[in-house]
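[[Sequence with tokens]]
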Amino acid sequence: MDETTGSVRKSEEEWRSVLDPEAFAVLRQGATERPWSGEYVSTSATGVYRCRACGTELFRSSEKFESHCGWPSFFDPAGSDAVTLHEDRSLGMVRTEVRCAHCDSHLGHVFRGEGYDTPTDARYCINSVALTLEADDSVQ
């Protein structure tokens, strides 16, 4: 960890040693898991969703909603500084990439103006493999 910024800094080799191949591909290389394949797509458990790479709290189950898009969807991050947003011009389109503010891992993308009945009109479309769920029964 960089003590001056609080950021997690690891080499590619260090990340490979702590993440399985799919998590490494998504979190460190910006890949996307197949739709409907992630463990948190349909879960309704209450708790805190954390970054699989560094453990930072990113989202809460109270902000999760069913968007029927194939990935877990949230309408707001847990804290205003939990994630960073970056322009993504890959795949021939302009999207907004979502990264963990603490370790700069790729989480997914955010979309706005789709008409979901949420307080923010945002859909943070996040890869399940980028998250871990700390269910309320395990929160102390």
Summary: The chain has two helices and nine strands. The two ends are 25 Å apart (CA to CA). The helical segments are 12-18, 21-29.
